[in-house]
Amino acid sequence: MSAKMQSMLPSLKKLLKNNLVVFLVFLVLGFILYGNSLGNEMFWDDQDNILFNEYVHNWQHIPKYFTENNVAGRGLISNYWRPLPLTIWSIEWHLWQDWAPGYHFVQTALHIGSAFLLFILLNKLFNNRLLSVLTSILILVHPLQTEAITYVSGISDPLSAVLIFSSLIFYIKFRELKPPNSYLITCSLVLFSLSFLARETTVFFFGYFVLVEFSLHVKKYKSAKWPRFFLDCIKFLWPFLALALAYVFLRLTALNFQNTLNLYDEQNEFTGSPLIRLFTFLRILTIYVGLLFWPHDLHIERGVDLARSLKPPDVVFGLSVLIGSLSALIFFLKKNRLIVFAIAWVIIGLIPTSNILVPINGLLFEHWLYIPMIGVWLVLCWCLIRLSRIANGKLSVLFATALRQAPLICYMLFATFLSIRTFQQNRLWRDPITFYNYTLKFAPNSYRVLNNLGMAYAEAKQHDEAIRVYQLAIRENPENAVAYHNLGNTQKALGNRQLAIDNFEKAISLQPDFYFSYNALAQLYLDESDYKSAIEVLQRLLPYQTGEQYLNTQNLITQLQSQK
Questions:
Q1: 3-state class of 452 per DSSP?
Q2: Which of 100, 256, 321, 396 has the fewest CB atoms within 10 Å, i.e. is most exposed?
């Protein structure tokens, strides 16, 4: 068996020399793993982002992608400004409307593309095709990625990865050529700029260009000391930094839709204490390590208890991981550029979602590891390859052979395990009722999951279940208007007129600018030809509207008055 494997290695290495073969391997593997997601439905943020987003459905609104927030076409306000996903979704909508397989196909294709570009990037940096393939495959098959791939609204992760990796590849080519080629640096700058339009956190990935600059010319910097490194960074990377700073300025001014920097709507213990945020991040770091190596119980609605000291064991472990990583980075700074690159890559990738600098809109999401995990697998695969080359003359031939093959076998077993978990996780996203019920096992008190499950039951005409779940949501958060509004819609569908009115009015009392309930209540009266009551409801809405929305409502009132 060992002889067979040894004879296969040269053939395998020969195949890996062909980029087309590598791409086909990724293509086949990617669609095998995510093929069972093509039949999944679209739900959760897919509704606001795509299915009910008027801006996505009509190309005349394309300019608004660049001046308004992501869900403005749904009549909502969010912190997100991502014109590129909106543009892609609009193209998809005009191609296949609400046909879910089309959207899932694009997600899978982007994921495969990002894995292949990662292979190209790593191979250019370290000139090791086997290492690059093994690392990229783990990125492709890891089940944590399902939150970004199987979920259509997660497009920003693979899309931004494709743009960042492409930009880095063009930058490397630019630095390799003598004399420099302005076309290459222009392409790199354009792709880097486009990544901002896909995901906000990519502005921090300017650090990856600094890291690439170090990795490419580390030998030169050893002899010339660090001043040369900083001078080269200023010389070659200042346009990238200027673009990043310009983007930050715009997001804090013209493109600041809803408290862009501090995404929390209120001051609390977490937002007010950098120490608590740091301790909590250390706890999250422990969770991340566990999820990377033993991905189980994966779900999108994760809660994390705040850490108020360094005493808890999981916080201590997270601190150990952080200190160990920083120590290794310093120790290998002039000894092993790959280890330095890998550790720095993880740190740069985690900074924007760490909450340490600025508290953002969540504590932990699995898809936040989409890009940072690359550094972890890069080191792991490098170690496995090094172990596989161990040959000790004092050992028996059989034992030495087994020792060389053990790392590859461990890799294959781990990759197979990850692939199986990915395939299984895709099935949990197949429809909203399955997904939300599964998520409630881990977050039974989540208002938004309960509310979304109620909507899923209502859409499936399971009205009794919808009412039960909406009431659970209201019990969890009695001050939120959305569940009352949805309960009103369900009561209306059942013919319970007064109960529907009561719930719509309750939603309005809790959130006076919640136009959904005004419109639903007005429509209920119009269905009964009660024009007077409908007009009164719409007149109550007018003070909360401006611009085009105000004019549309005013015109509707005028039409109804003429009919009355």
A1: helix
A2: 396
Side-chain-side CA neighbours of 509 within 13 Å: the count stands at 9
70-80: per-residue pLDDT in tens? 999 998 888 88
Q: How far apart are CA 261 and CA 248, in angstroms?
A: 10
Q: What is the largest CA-CA distance in the chain?
A: 100
* Dist. CA 153–CA 453, nearest whole Å: 18
How far is residue 536's CA from residue 540's CA, in Å, rounded to a whole number? 6
3-class SS string, 128-188? CHHHHHHHHHHHHHCHHHHHHHCCHHHHHHHHHHHHHHHHHHHHHHHHHCCCCCHHHHHHH
Distance CA 299, CA 425 (A): 9
CA torsion angle 455 459 461 467 (round to 10) = 10
- Give the separation between CA 300 and CA 483, rounded to whole angstroms: 20
The answer to whether the predicted template modeling score (pTM) of the entire model surpasses 0.85 is: yes
| Eight-state DSSP code of residue 494 | T
Place of tokens 């898809």: 367
Distance of alpha carbon 393 from alpha carbon 151, whole angstroms: 52
**φ, ψ for residue 256 (rounded to 5)?**
-95, 95
Q: How many angstroms from the chain centroid is the CA of residue 160?
A: 9
**Is 515 within 8 Å of 545 (Cβ atoms)?**
yes
- Residue 172, Cβ density class (10 Å: 0-12 exposed, 13-18 middle, ≥19 buried): buried
Residue with the two structure tokens 């429809």: 431
Helix pair 100-126, 156-176: axis angle to 10 deg = 30
Helix axes 397-428, 432-440, angle to 10 degrees: 110
Cis peptide before 512 (omega within 30 of 0): no
Query: Cα-atom radius of gyration of the chain, to the nearest Å?
Result: 27
pLDDT attached to residue 429: 97
Contact by Cβ (8 Å): 361, 264 = yes
Render pLDDT for 2-18 as a digit per residue (tens, 0 to 9): 445 454 555 666 667 78
68, two tokens: 């308004």
44 backbone φψ class: left, alpha, beta (φ>0; ψ -120 to 50): left
Burial of 270 (0-12, 13-18, 19+ CB in 10 A): middle
Question: What does the pLDDT look like over 422-442, one tens digit per residue?
Answer: 999 999 999 999 999 999 999
Residue among 498, 457, 366, 374 at smallest CA distance from 118: 374
